[in-house]
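Recall that a protein's primary structure is simply its ordered list of amino acids. Everything else, from secondary elements to tertiary packing, is in principle encoded there. The following example makes that idea concrete.
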Amino acid sequence: MFKIIYFFNFFVLTCINTLFLVYIYMTKIIVCFNFKYATASILLNALLSLSSGGFFIGDTMNAVDRFLSQKDEIVNDYNNKLGLAKTAIKYKIQAPILKEFLKEHGVKTRSLSESKRIYKVNEDFFNKIDTEEKAYILGFSYADGCVSKDYRVFKFGLQARDIDILQKIKKAMKSDHKITKYIASGKYKVIQFAVTSKKICSDLKKHGCINKKTFLVKFPDINKELLRHFIRGYTDGDGYVSSKEKVVSIIGTEDFCLSLSDIFKEKFMIKGTIRTAGECKNNNIKEIRFRVRESYRILKWLYSDCNIYLDRKKEEAEKIVENKRVLSSDYIGVEKRVNKNSTKWGCRIKVGKNRIRIGLFNTEIEAAEAYDEYILNNNIKNRFGKIRALNFYK
């Protein structure tokens, strides 16, 4: 009976002592960490329960003191890319407890993929399209980018001569990924820039750049101020700009080309010609093509005052724009007439072998409108039997 009472008293005193220590160290943790009470309880309970398992070296309470005294070192080690698991092992603390500790101290914890990342990249680059570079690269991604089926890898594969644009994209995304070179089909020199990131692929998907997009892509919702940068990026990828032919054409789905036509019609009162692209067997792939005067106005808008572009496309665009400057007007059939007293705008049209002068006008727009009115009133057609091209789409 005496032994039972002795062990009972010993058990009660041990429990009281343990509870007292729990109270002391709970208060200590809350003060030092500025934790919420529940988080502090989880931490202390974990420490107490794991001490018996040998996870900590020495007495549990000494481990708590050591952990509290090293809190600044813990944060620094984690921020210096030591990683959650290695930091936890170094300071002999469970990873979930360490993660909770970092959150309470305002430290943004990295995901597993981020902690394993070898190469750096700005994973939030496509989160919001709010700069010229982001709009351009999104457009270029629509044309020449590729998102893997599992939405983990995003890459570009281009001919070797276009390495300049991949270097610009790499710099804009703050990436140190390598641009690799290889031979495709045994003869073509190809370069590739690939990034493994679920976050980037997810953001691209949100903006409409999906896996196997070729026959499905639709024009995205882009800020009007950044619209020309997106279109320039797409044109650099899937556009054709020729200074010799003085023509611009862009390939895309029918929906995408119709959206482009609407944009150019609103901006310049021109719509371009949409037709099935080359030898493409899929009827949903179209080409929107623009004549000389239309090309000049579009290219001037796309490539003037821009910071990111494909070098060879911009060179072709500048040649077309430069050659167009010798013409006195951007409009069909309109020319500037200058004399000593005034400057007028004249318009004329060639019908068969005859050149017909329509008149002189005070402004370039008035002359262009008069040209269109003359064609419509006289039902003047081209060699295909359709109404002659107009300055303003009607």
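The first helix runs from residue 2 to 33. The two ends are 110 Å apart (CA to CA).
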